[in-house]
What does this fold into?
Amino acid sequence: MIKKMLSYYNKKLWRTLFLVFAGVLFAITLGSLMNIEVVNVLKQKIPLPLQLLYAELLGFISPGPRYIIYPLLIKLHEFGINIGVIVALISGHVLIEPSTFFVEAGFFGFRFPVKRFAVSLVVTYIAGAVTVFVGKFL
Amino acid sequence: MMDKIKKIGIDIKMAFLLIGISIILMLIFKINFTQLILDNSEIIIKIVYLTAIAMGISTAIHFVIPEDFAEKHLRDSKLTHLFYATLLGVLTPGPVYAIYPIVIVLKKKGIKNPILVAFLTGQTIIGPARAPFEIGFFGLKFYLYRILLALIMGPIAALLFIFLSKFWPDKKRAD
It folds into this structure.
């Protein structure tokens, strides 16, 4: 059993590390283009409800494995972006993405991912909005 | 050659695409690769060891939860079942491409679409393998809050799916 687990772990680890490497490289490259001035301008010009919407839409269209978003989130958090926006981004990034949309359409017909996209849009927005209010306790 | 490329998983293809985009961005914006790595070395090291821990948690859960667990416990679209599906999703490790085979098997066994939506929502929003990352970067409170949020979001997503399906039902697929 332990041997089986170790073999499974070994196989998964290297594959995941490669995916993580690609994602982190992408994230830190994007992160290096972000600066506090740009984020401050965005914060001032875009009202919070719209920031939530943009965050989730940005999450939906962002490709790549789940772990890649963390370097970006850390940077956004450091720049003082509202925790609700971070939750909207993190949830939006994983709930549905372009590639899984087509995978789901292939397996279940296109109505399934279209409805899941609509539903995800609503629940992610709710999650972000709720977090804006409870964020100070986190 | 083309056959070999076709056999490569979509996640690996996506990874190569991301590396390609990163290289293009570095060339366009004249980003120094060595400096980029040095500036972010702390985060990179943290992510590497958190990934190793995350894979350890995923492996343990993969061997602990029986394969037929979902099939046994998720037959109807009752609220409690939607909650169980979300909880099961939260507990299921692995990248999203890896869980589609599970979802397809569940579908073939007659599990209804709202249950699958709750499962997918729970699985994608949070998972055991995310614990090291979220606790490491944002703290335990944040991670626990995200679990709670996922457990609420899953059933809500499924209920909204049921509501939408009343106006726009899923087509039955002949396969």
Remarks:
- The mean pLDDT of chain A is 83.
